[in-house]
Design goal:
By secondary structure, this protein is α/β, with parallel strands linked by helices. The protein folds into two domains: 156 residues; 173 residues. Helix content is 46%, strand content 18%. The protein contains 14 helices and 16 strands. The strands form five sheets. It has a six-stranded parallel sheet with strand order 5-4-1-6-7-8. Strands 9-12-13 form a three-stranded antiparallel sheet. The chain has a three-stranded antiparallel sheet with strand order 14-15-16. α3 crosses α13, α7 crosses α14 and α8 packs antiparallel against α11. It is globular. Bound molecules: nicotinamide-adenine-dinucleotide and (2S)-2-hydroxybutanedioic acid. Its EC number is 1.1.1.37. Belongs to the LDH/MDH superfamily. MDH type 2 family. GO terms for molecular function: L-malate dehydrogenase (NAD+) activity. It catalyses: (S)-malate + NAD(+) = oxaloacetate + NADH + H(+).
Length: 394
């Protein structure tokens, strides 16, 4: 009898229990959502963040990049200035990832750098949880999770490659040591400043405790340029083209390769070679257009690429940290492990996929004779750059 009353009482309480469960579930969901938004901020360092070239600081003559000279009277607002708002808007680490920006530049750029900080504050960006603008390399590197190295010494008229290399060796030596000592344990580094592959190698040399897997350079801009050229040629949206490859150096010896690339049209995936159906164009004009695109931008703008470089830097880190979609690869300058017969000890651009914050080189792609020769030629240039850089060490 007692059991019966107990059961009846329980049945009567079912609506109340259900409502309580429902409310409890709602509250939990609300807190989980709150937790999601309140991820811990990541600290992102951008060097060369003022994006202003002070020719007085660097000396006297006009500014020469990619063999095209640009008037010395221009003040430049370049990659750094384009990049920091992109990072602060979530384009690099995602729309739910708060960030703290550390911006480093040289002493003559301190006032301009502070101006960039003022603008970031004025933009009232919800994801931006703090800004440090400094000319102190230790302060800039402290606690950094992601380092984007844009600052460097530009090549000037009359300068030998060795002179530029030796300036960059000393800049990258100092910044590597500061990163090694003061950055977060698993700091990921992207080198943008030219010569990007070799600057990354120097950085690796002077930051031996940063795992080599964490030091990369930017060839995603070249990758995106190759996607853009194919999409223009086929008159299809760039988002429908995938799996081009940039092999080698971020220089005019790089090899943009479409042998494994495909495009999706009418829900069907087809090899680019088949769609373009013009090997002559793919083996000549396409390659040189991508190789020379940086110089063409400088010629047109009288400045080097900035918005596309900043956007590609965001793509690089975004895919590295958050992963590449299934079936899709991207190009990254990474430390060679000997894959595809590329000598170990070079920072060389390979096709990679990324998962859980780690990149892996795409293996077993068929390489024909034409590609082999081009891949070896760009490796040869990197070997020469490496020996030039090492001759500047000490
Ligand atoms: N890898 C790529 O795809 C790619 C694409 C475009 C440009 N780049 C290279 O990126 C670099 C930056 O280009 P930009 O147009 O922004 O140049 P920029 O001259 O406008 O800006 C460079 C900034 O670096 C600063 N800087 C110089 N030495 C520094 C140091 N020791 N520490 C910190 N900051 C320092 C300068 O004051 C300046 O503000 C160049 O080397 C350029 O060739 C690479
Ligand atoms: O700065 C340059 O020399 C060119 C740049 O690397 C680019 O590819 O746009």
């Amino acid at each position: 009898m007692e059991d019966y009353y107990y059961m009846e009482e329980l049945v009567q309480k079912i609506p109340v229990i259900s409502i309580c469960c429902y409310l409890f579930w709602k509250i939990i969901k609300h807190f989980v959502k709150l937790l999601d938004v309140e991820k811990d901020p990541m600290i992102v360092l951008v060097t060369g963040a003022a994006g202003i070239y002070f020719y007085d600081f660097y000396a006297h003559t006009s500014y020469l990049r990619a063999d095209i000279s640009v008037s010395k009277s221009l003040y430049r607002c370049q990659i750094g200035y384009a990049l920091v708002p992109m990072i602060a808007r979530g384009e690099m680490l995602g729309p739910d990832q708060p960030v703290i920006l550390h911006m480093l530049d040289i002493e003559p750029a301190a006032e301009a750098l502070n101006g960039v900080k003022m603008e970031l504050i004025d933009a009232a960006l919800p994801l931006l949880k703090g800004v440090v603008a400094t000319t102190n390399v230790v302060e800039a590197c402290t606690g950094v999770d992601i380092a984007v190295m844009v600052g460097g010494f530009p090549r000037k008229e009359g300068m030998e490659r060795k002179d530029v290399m030796s300036k960059n060796v000393s800049i990258y030596k100092a910044q590597a040591s500061a990163l090694e000592e003061h950055a977060a344990e698993n700091c990921k580094v992207l080198v943008v400043a030219n010569p990007a592959n070799t600057n990354a190698l120097i950085l690796k040399e002077y930051a031996p405790s940063i795992p080599e897997k964490n030091i990369t350079c930017l060839t995603r801009l070249d990758h995106n340029r190759a996607l853009g050229q194919v999409s223009e040629k086929l008159d299809i949206h760039v988002g429908n083209v995938k799996n081009v490859i940039i092999w080698g150096n971020h220089s005019s010896t790089q090899y943009p390769d479409v042998n494994h690339a495909t495009a999706t049209t009418d829900l069907k995936e087809t090899p680019i070679k088949e769609l373009v159906s013009n090997d002559q164009w793919l083996n000549t004009e396409f390659i040189t257009t991508v190789q020379q695109r940086g110089a063409a931008i400088i010629k047109a703008r009288k400045l080097s690429s900035a918005l596309s470089a900043a956007s590609s830097a965001c793509d690089h880190i975004h895919d590295w940290v958050l992963g590449t979609p299934k079936g899709k690869w991207v190009s990254m300058g990474v430390y060679s492990d000997g894959s595809y017969g590329i000598p170990e000890g070079l920072v060389y651009s390979f096709p990679v996929t990324c998962d859980k914050g780690e990149w892996s080189i795409v293996q077993s792609l068929k390489i024909d004779e034409f590609s082999r020769a081009k891949m070896d030629a760009t490796a040869k240039e990197l070997i020469e750059e490496k020996s030039l850089a090492y001759s500047c060490l000490n």
